[in-house]
User: What shape does this take?
Amino acid sequence: LVNHCVGAPGVVVYAWLSGGENASVDSKLTSNGDGKLKVAGGSDIVIGMAEEAVDATDSNDQDERIKVRLI
Assistant: This one.
C-alpha cells in the first residue's frame, strides 16, 4: 500500500521534509523525488508553502515533519 492524498489548493497537510533541508515560514517546497519535500530552487515546480519553520540540517539526515499549505 502507498500513502497519498489528493488535496485541493489551500489545504494544509503534514508532510516529510527531507533531512538536510531548512525551511522557513512561506518557503516554497517541491518534491525531493522520494516521497519527501525539499526547499524549491529556481526552476523547480512548487507544490506547497511551509506553514511552519523546520530546520532538518542538524538532524543527522533524519527527515522532519512539516506543515504545508498546498498550492
Q: What stands out?
A: The first strand starts at residue 12 and ends at 17.
